[in-house]
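Notes from the 1:1 (GR / supervisor)

We went over the backlog. Supervisor wanted to see one worked example end to end before approving the batch request, so GR pasted a single chain during the call. The sequence is below; no edits were made to it. Supervisor asked that the structure be written out right there so they could see what the output format looks like.
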Amino acid sequence: MKNDWKESLKAAFDAPEPGNKKEFLRNIRPREVSTPRMLFQQVQYIRGAVWIFALMIMIFALLGSWKQMEETEDLIPVIMPFLAAISVLETRRSRKCGMIEIEMVTRFSLRSVILARMLALGLVYLFTVCVISPVIAAAFGGKALLTAMRILIPYLITMSISLQVERSVWGRKLEYASLAIAAAIAIAMFWIKNTDSALLLGYTKVIENCGVLIVLVLAGITAFEQWKTINNVEEFA
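Structure output shown during the call:
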């Protein structure tokens, strides 16, 4: 009798067999996200101040060229190291906000997130250089390629050095080490321009003769440093 009651209760209250179980499980799986969509998603997580600073540089370059402000041609290369420093700061934002562990186990790996942010920032900065270089060159009687190289060299130097420092023990302890590096390079650029005419002349000749090679070498070094940062992001987190 007791067994009959148990069987009756089980039949009355047992959960029914789930219908369309396989279809339900297929639908709850995360959908694949394309590379452009992932880039767009990561752009939204980059601080607004980064985009505002890049926009201000573009506006200053375009407005200064239009108004024929001679300082424009000299100040843009001095400002570019700080744009590089801000980019490097974005690579450690997860660590600063205490999100390292969460981003390591979420849908996108931390490496993918850092790569997407670097790529998004790099594309925007490349677009900025491509826009302002011919405008500055046309306004002040220079060559667009030479102007672009003068802008890119301090940027790439700052980027490559800052990435190395950020991975070091010293760089991990000092939050704004990349900004200090940018300031040092900016001061050096300003000193070359306003203090030592012989050094300025030599620097100009080197860029005119070997500028393309220098930019390519620096771009290669920067890309290598970015690769090391991405591949060792968990180790240096």
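Supervisor's comment: Residues 67 and 139 are 9 Å apart (CA to CA).
Batch request approved.
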